[in-house]
Design a protein that fits this description.
This protein is α/β, with parallel strands linked by helices and 123 residues long. The chain has five helices and four strands. The chain is 34% helix and 17% strand. The chain is globular, with a radius of gyration of 15 Å. Keywords: Hydrogen ion transport, Ion transport, Membrane, Transport, Vacuole.
């Protein structure tokens, strides 16, 4: 069992989303940039031109490399672009939450967390 020491530094949210979602969350105070020469943002704005490889790289950075991220929020329609990565992600921290976007409503049938919960309850 993991100790609390492993998770005590996880104090930030990260966001992978469309411009409206990221802007709203940044206005709410979620934004953070790390110190140092290799300063990293805790968000990625995805548009129609953003390649899946860029989204996957941000997903990996937020879930594997950054040890200060507690929760990763990702728009569900963007998670669909890297669904194979999202569905295989099982770590407790950072927690992964799929959120709706202004133009893309939330579909519970696609949510990887809800799928796992349903399997636990035998549905």
């Amino acid at each position: 069992m993991a100790s609390n020491a492993e998770y005590k530094d996880r104090q930030f949210l990260a966001v992978i989303g469309d411009e409206d979602s990221v802007t709203g969350l940044l206005l709410a105070g979620v934004g953070h940039v790390t110190q140092g020469a290799d300063a990293q943002k805790n968000f990625l704005v995805v548009d129609a031109k953003t390649e899946s490889a860029v989204i996957e790289a941000a997903f990996d950075r937020f879930t594997q490399e950054r040890k200060d991220i507690a929760i990763l929020l990702i728009n569900q329609h963007i998670a669909d672009k890297i669904r194979h990565r999202v569905d295989t992600y099982t770590a407790a921290f950072p927690s992964l939450l799929e959120i709706p976007a202004k133009d893309h409503p939330y579909d519970p049938e696609k949510d990887s967390v809800l799928k796992r919960v349903r399997r636990l309850f035998g549905e």
